[in-house]
Structure formats: structure tokens, C-alpha cells
Design brief:
This protein is of the alpha/beta class. The protein contains 10 helices and 8 strands. Helix 1 packs across helix 10 (about 250-270), helix 4 runs antiparallel to helix 7 and helix 5 runs antiparallel to helix 6. The model has no long low-confidence stretch (mean pLDDT about 95).
């Protein structure tokens, strides 16, 4: 994949692209908190050559550090700038955990650019999903993390999201370059910044919710069930997978994404 970067107000954001000129479909993968673009290496290997693939290190993560003035609205605008730079007009979005929030903010701002959204072990934008107690507990996650020694914090985080040895080792490799202070600051993005920018949204394009059947991260599974119930979006469980489902069971996740994209393509052809 070709490694590129874009200079924005808060710093330099890095991204990677692999083009398939004869295919108009582009998949944008957005990673989870304390991770980076490499958490999608199983998806990149599967979809490369079939679709244009774009991955990025979300601001304050991976190579996109340091970064000043993080907000989810800015991440949406930055993704828009990247797509404009690459002359990509429409995309399929795949957002894993925290990565689902830039996707949803982007979709709210630029719905005409989104052909479909795969919500992977993430939770919805919307004011009705989160109780006051939920929001209070979210604010406690980063302070509680400060109580762990640095090495214990990394190990506990990696095991908490991983069912397989591969996912654990991949998560540890992404955590290794980060200081404890950076890990905690990134956790604040997911657990403290998110409620501040939460908003009600409505999407006209197709949405697929995927969640590991053994995902025990917070209330992700219950949020996904309620998300599906309120919107009618299909919810599929990834077998033998925890929160890092695309690492635990990449075969099912890849097949789900491929079928989702193919079905949308068939629906578009029916309209022609």
C-alpha cells in the first residue's frame, strides 16, 4: 500500500491507499482506540486487488501523533479532505469500535458520499441510547486506567478485547509504542469526548452491525442490539470473537463485508 500524509490544522495525518483502477468501489477502514491502521491487516490482505482500500491512523493514533485539538467533527472533515485529495467520490465505511464514530460523523456531514456503513463492534450516535449512568461510567474509564502499572495496563487491555493469540499479539504490538500517558489520553477520546459530540443521526444508506458474540467490552453488545431494534439495521454476531472481532474471526468478518458490498451493488444495478 502507498503511504501518504496530509497536513491539517492539528498536525499531520497519515493514510495508506491501494488503488484498483478498474473498480469504482472504495472501502475506508477506521481503527479502534489505542490501535492503528495495522489492525485491519487481515482485511487488507483479503480485499486488496478487489477494491480500492484506504486505511488511516486517526488523529492522536499511530503515525498521526502528536495531534492538537482532537474532535470527531474534525476527523470527519479530515477524512473528507483525504478523499477529495484522492479524487474518491463515494465509499463504503468500516468502523471498528472508536473508529465507528468518525465514520458516523462523516456520514452525517456527507451522506451522499457513503454507499454503506459496516459498524464493527462499535456503538451508535444518538441521544436515546445512553443513560446518565452510562455516561457517568464512561468518564471513569480513563481515571481507572491510571491505577494500573504500565505493563499490566497493556496486557489487561489486550486480553480484554482478544479471543485469539493473533489478536492479543497484534493488540500488544499496537500498544507497545505508546506511553501510559498516551494510552490514557487516547482512551479519553473514546470514553469522554464521544458523549460531548454525540448527536441524533439518520442514515438512508444501508448499515450492517457486526459484533463479536463474546464481546464483553462495556455494554457494546447491548447497545448494538438496541441500535438494531430502533433502526431495523441487520445485526450479525461474529462467532468465537471478542471485541477485536476482525482479528479473532477475520474469515467471517471479511465474508460479511464482502456480501454487504455485493448486495448493495446488486441493488444499484436493479435501479438502472
Amino acid at each position: 500500500m502507498e503511504h501518504k500524509k496530509i497536513k491539517v490544522k492539528g498536525g499531520i495525518v497519515h493514510y495508506w491507499i491501494n488503488r484498483v483502477e478498474e473498480c469504482q468501489n472504495c472501502i475506508v477502514f477506521s481503527h479502534g482506540v489505542t490501535a492503528d491502521h495495522t489492525m485491519f491487516e487481515k482485511q487488507t490482505a483479503y480485499f486488496s486487488g478487489k477494491y480500492t482500500i484506504l486505511l488511516w491512523d486517526i488523529p492522536m493514533h499511530g503515525f498521526s501523533r502528536p495531534y492538537v485539538g482532537f474532535s470527531y467533527k474534525d476527523t470527519a472533515e479530515i477524512l473528507h479532505d483525504i478523499l477529495n485529495k484522492e479524487k474518491i467520490e463515494t465509499v463504503f465505511l468500516v468502523g471498528m469500535s472508536m473508529g465507528g464514530y468518525p465514520c458516523q460523523h462523516f456520514a452525517a456531514l456527507y451522506p451522499h458520499m457513503v454507499k454503506g456503513f459496516v459498524a464493527l463492534d462499535t456503538t451508535p450516535l444518538g441521544m436515546t441510547y445512553y443513560s446518565k449512568s452510562d455516561l457517568w461510567w464512561l468518564k471513569q474509564v480513563a481515571p481507572m486506567a491510571k491505577l494500573f502499572p504500565s505493563s499490566a495496563l497493556r496486557i489487561s487491555m489486550a486480553w480484554a478485547v482478544s479471543k485469539t493469540k493473533y489478536s492479543y499479539q497484534k493488540m500488544m504490538s499496537m500498544l507497545k509504542p505508546l506511553s501510559k500517558a498516551e494510552i490514557i489520553e487516547q482512551m479519553k477520546i473514546a470514553y469522554e469526548y464521544f458523549p460531548k459530540e454525540n448527536q441524533d443521526v439518520h442514515f438512508e444508506f444501508p448499515v450492517l452491525i457486526l459484533v463479536g458474540e463474546k464481546d464483553s467490552t462495556g455494554k457494546v453488545k447491548s447497545y448494538c442490539r438496541e441500535w438494531s431494534r430502533q433502526t431495523g439495521y441487520p445485526l450479525h454476531y461474529i462467532k468465537n470473537a471478542k471485541h477485536f472481532a476482525n482479528g479473532d474471526n477475520p474469515e467471517q468478518v471479511n465474508a460479511e463485508i464482502a456480501l454487504f458490498i455485493n448486495n448493495i451493488g446488486e441493488d444499484e444495478n436493479d435501479l438502472l
